[in-house]
Write a structure and sequence with these properties.
three-stranded antiparallel β-sheet; 2 domains; 4 helices; about 65% helix; mainly alpha
């Protein structure tokens, strides 16, 4: 065999990482992890398409990185900071709607309680129509107003949380910039 025609390939040992993410965050996370020496592992076989709508909204980010990368300790520390910031952004995004959901649910349950009282008043012997009407009005209002309350609280929470999210994105960009400088 002619060894002159073959080029000697240098051995590279890799470490691997899988990150489960929303489809909308896939590119953002890939760009971020690349600043810590990770690259997309294209050797992974594609899994079959699932009919489950939840799994279609999520994607697995498969990454690999040279095990002998320079400044690995510092890159790993920065990577953990990056992941913590991404988790905090996720929590802040959920916080926009979680408080509003609780308020709307409580108001809806109160409306349902009034509606139950109204139902018991009309089914009593003899039926008490006046009490039924008096209890039905707040019952219907308790079923209608949660939507408007939800929208109002989401708007307020969004105003309060958006600057915090932007600060976290700025922090992420600084972390990624430091990681990129350590690579090159």
């Amino acid at each position: 065999m002619d060894n002159a025609g073959r080029q000697q390939r240098k051995f590279v040992g890799y470490e691997y990482k899988e990150v489960l993410t929303e489809n909308s965050r896939f590119s953002f996370l890939l760009d971020g992890y690349e600043n810590f020496g990770w690259e997309l592992d294209e050797n992974q076989p594609e899994s079959g398409e699932s009919r489950n709508p939840v799994s279609q909204q999520r994607k697995v980010l498969r990454l690999k990185r040279n095990r002998k990368i320079v400044n690995k300790m510092e890159l790993t520390r920065l990577e953990r900071n990056f992941e913590a910031c991404v988790n905090e952004i996720d929590k802040l995004e959920k916080e926009k709607t979680s408080v509003a959901t609780v308020y709307a649910l409580v108001l809806g349950i109160i409306g349902t309680a009034f509606m139950a009282g109204s139902t018991f008043a009309v089914t009593a012997q003899p039926p008490n129509y006046i009490l039924c009407i008096i209890l039905a009005v707040p019952g219907f209002l308790g079923w209608i107003f949660p939507y408007f309350l939800y929208k109002k609280v989401v708007g307020k929470q969004t105003e309060r949380v958006t600057p915090l999210i932007e600060e976290k994105y700025d922090e992420i960009y600084e972390i990624c910039e430091k990681g990129n400088k350590l690579l090159y």
